[in-house]
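Quick one: structure for this chain?
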Amino acid sequence: MLSAKKMKFLLAIFSMITLNSCLMEYTLVKVKKSENTYIKFIFPKSVEEINILSGKQGMYKLFIQIYDQKGEYFFIPNYQSINPDGHKWLYDYKCYPADSYIFQTSKLYFNSSVPSNEFLYNYEYMVQIPVGKSKLRFLILEENKKYEGYVIYTKEVNIIPNQILSVNFSKLSAGEGVAILPYCEFIPCVLRN
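Got it. Here's what it folds into:
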């Protein structure tokens, strides 16, 4: 039988490993090797669904992550989030109307701490991704399904310069909704109906 002191020590070690893996999982990194290579994504909903999903319900959480083979920690795979800083959507790109729920709640944060993982349905976003072979992972959490947990999709891609990976999150569960397109003008965010 383990003594209380040894049990506390083992619990502390286990907690440190768990915390470390969680922090590594959601590390924000900047994309370094992008040559007009982007991911363009949208999570469309019908007008009826949007009318029901107002306020916080009208948003979803998304982490766009890239696998970092060099950063593996023992047996734990290391994915790093390539989401842009949240203040870019709010202030630099001016994606949201000033009276929208996401704008009102996000502006309460300090400039550098605006959440980078909150997005609106029916908005099409563009985010830089690296050129070449990558293993991307998308962690999606819908507010109205938050008790079911994150939905995770993984996709291996080989993007050459001047290409866009287009993703429609409403079609991923059916095995569709992913296409590689030629580069077009960079439009960070736009409302699609």
